[in-house]
Amino acid sequence: MSQNLLFTNDVATALGNLVKDAAPATIHVIADENTARLVVPRLGLPASADLITIPAGDDAKNLDTLASIWGHLVDNGATRRSLTVNVGGGMVTDIGGMAAATFKRGMRFINLPTTLLGAVDAAVGGKTGINFRGLKNEIGVFAPADAVIVSTRFFVTLPMHELLSGYAEMIKHALLTDGREYRRLIGTDVSLTDAAGLLPMLRDSVMIKKRIVDEDPCEKGVRRALNLGHTVGHALESFSHECRSPLPHGYAVAYGLLAEMIISHIELGFPSSALHEMGAFLKKTYTASSLGIPVQPLPAISCDDYDRLIDLMSHDKKNATSNDINFTLLEAPGRPVIDRTATPATIVAALDILRDMTS
Ligand SMILES: NC(=O)c1ccc[n+]([C@@H]2O[C@H](COP(=O)([O-])OP(=O)(O)OC[C@H]3O[C@@H](n4cnc5c(N)ncnc54)[C@H](O)[C@@H]3O)[C@@H](O)[C@H]2O)c1
User: Fold this and answer.
1) pLDDT by residue (tens digit) across 166-221?
2) Are both 175 and 311 inside the same structural domain?
3) What is the distance in A from the centroid of ligand 1 to the CA of 91?
4) Hey, which of 32, 119, 142, 259 would disulfide with 56, CB 3.0 to 4.6 Å?
5) pLDDT digits (tens, 9 = 90+) for 9-65
6) Residue 58 belongs to a domain with what CATH number?
7) Of residues 221, 131, 200, 205, the one with CA closest to residue 168
8) d(Cα 155, Cα 112) in Å, to the nearest integer?
């Protein structure tokens, strides 16, 4: 399942070479309404390339949009020897990858992520899919892109909260590797880092994910380490939607990372110094006021909400049974332990400490 990953800000040349080598029957570019306007015109694609524009946003990652892509491919002469180029964030690479993987039982596709979250996470690793009946990523297939072009040049138009969403996943990758990389990231102000400076940091981070995915492409074991921060993170994200104060995914992951570092401290003696550094970093960076955006950085949680949060964690796809809540924990930065469970009492203690550390 090893993927061809290209790290470059000369995207037009890289894409031109890949298209030349592929010599496809037809080229179909899948983009959302924002990336079709902001990115596609800068790719130097041949005039014959067929553009498929889909609505932006996770709500459109559904069966209707998928069917509209399949219909467009049928109507525009796509064959098994055609190529799709998915240009966008994780929403586009997830649904575009699934469209390509299933059309005529599979055609080739290239991912060109245009968000930091897409580049560091969604476009790499072969997970594709759509939401179904209100459930996130309920239907999908493992299908790695033939190539992924990882670039930072299109992030200039990204809103700051989108950039920070992806940065949380970079911090997660660093925590899985070693303490030095983790401290480098929380000591960096990503808002002041230009495209040229961000590209090598992004490459290091993507390679951490690639190494883990190459070892366990279908998530039977070690790949579950990548779920660090996501058990609590997904619960916070879903809870924030229920409270009509939606939290960007990466913000939920950032707070989920801190919560799971606290659980790691209780269960496995994760060092409290690294924990406090993360708390201080979140307070400084993942805030509404410092970003000037209309989102709540952490939904207003009270003790009365703990049962609901634990209930949401118990419905997580990663759990083997509905009684056990599965976590990836850390003995220390770089020493993940997969398939751990924590009792409700420990989770409540962690949520208490999380609230104290971030208030
Ligand atoms: N497959 C995986 O392994 C995996 C991993 C993580 C997340 N995901 C999925 O990824 C999706 C989230 O990805 P995302 O955060 O990239 O969201 P997204 O794709 O919805 O993009 C967020 C917003 O940014 C806009 N945008 C994209 N690129 C831009 C640019 N360069 N300039 C300005 N605006 C731009 C988009 O139009 C959209 O409005 C979710 O559907 C999630 O389930 C998948």
Assistant:
1) 999 999 999 999 889 999 999 999 888 899 999 999 999 999 999 999 999 888 88
2) yes
3) 5
4) 32
5) 999 999 999 999 999 999 999 999 999 999 999 999 999 999 999 999 999 999 999
6) 3.40.50.1970
7) 205
8) 12
Nearest to 6 by CA among 156, 173, 213, 203: 203
274-306 burial: b if 16+ Cβ within 10 Å, else e: bbebbbebbeebbbeeebeeeeebbbebeeeee
Point out the ligand 1 atom lying closest to the alpha carbon of residue 137.
43
- For residue 303, give both structure tokens: 């003790």
CATH number of the domain within which 178 lies: 1.20.1090.10
| 157 Cα nearest atom in ligand 1 | 32
**What's this model's pTM, rounded to 2 decimal places?**
0.94
- CA–centroid distance, 179 to ligand 1, in Å, is 28
Strand 27-32, strand 83-88: pairing: parallel
- If asked whether residues 250 and 311 sit together in one domain, one would say yes
Rounded to whole angstroms, the Cα distance separating 139 from 128 reads 9
Asked if residue 168 and residue 52 are part of one domain, the reply reads no
Does ligand 1 lie within 6 Å of residue 92's CB atom?
Answer: yes
Pseudo-torsion of CA 107, 125, 205, 312, nearest 10°? 130
Mean pLDDT, residues 218-227 taken together:
91
Handedness of CA 59, 314, 299, 281 (dihedral sign): negative
Locate 26 and state its tokens: 């037809």
Tokens 């690793």 locate to 125
What is the Rg, in whole angstroms, of the alpha carbon atoms belonging to the chain? 20
**Structural domain that includes position 83:** 4-157
Residue 9 lies in a domain: yes
Which amino acid, 274?
Answer: A
